[in-house]
Write a structure and sequence with these properties.
Rossmann fold; 6 helices; 6 strands
Length: about 200
């Protein structure tokens, strides 16, 4: 599997301060810092998605779900939230500092799970003739999955970086083993880098 660097972008999904614990538990911070650095060295654009919600909750999704993000049923003792845990501009919505986001990178604020929904992501990729998206971050079965589905439906070549994912372990394993291989490719960070080197112009 060769990947052409000039047709490839790295999308780091929601590796934010408010999700630091999940990133630490998954052990992805150092690995993703390395992948970001290696992609920069190959002139691959780095894109950072981040949750971005109004503090008053007026732009929250209206979809009614049965359970919260910890799979606890909503009810009198666990009401559905009407406001986000953090508001736009909060330090909690900033990318993990160790990952080294730069001003020249692409900042992709989003208001729904998919990084494509209502953002400039598709336009920015197409403007650079990019057709391949390296996808990492979390939560695997929520935002990463939503973005992978959307990317597939927009005819992008999506590659999920399996050792760069966060989220609950059972769901993460299920998606990596049984869901993502059906809609895209799944590779380790080392495999991705090898494929990029293979696809370099002579």
């Amino acid at each position: 599997m060769a990947l052409v660097p000039s047709r490839t972008a790295l999308l780091v999904f929601d590796l934010l301060e408010c999700y630091r614990e999940a990133a630490e538990q998954a052990g992805v911070i150092a690995r993703m810092r390395g992948l970001v650095s290696e992609c920069r060295g190959r002139a691959i654009p780095v894109m950072w998605t981040r949750a971005d919600h109004r503090e008053d909750g007026s732009d929250l999704a209206r979809t009614i779900a049965d359970v919260d993000n910890r799979h606890r049923a909503f009810g009198p003792g666990n009401p559905r939230p009407s406001r986000p845990a953090h508001g736009a501009g909060s330090a909690a919505y900033q990318t993990l500092s160790e990952l080294g986001q730069r001003p020249e990178d692409y900042d992709v604020p989003k208001h729904r799970w998919s990084a494509f929904h209502g953002t400039h992501l598709d336009t920015s990729l197409r403007a650079r003739d990019i057709d391949t998206l390296l996808l990492c971050g979390g939560s695997t079965h929520v935002g990463v999955a939503s973005t992978a589905y959307a990317g597939r439906d927009l005819d992008y070549q999506v590659i999920v970086v399996r050792d760069g994912l966060t989220g609950q372990q059972p769901q993460r394993n299920f998606f990596v083993e049984h869901v993502f291989p059906r809609i895209c490719r799944v590779r380790t960070a080392d495999q991705v880098l090898a494929a990029l080197d293979e696809g370099k112009a002579p």
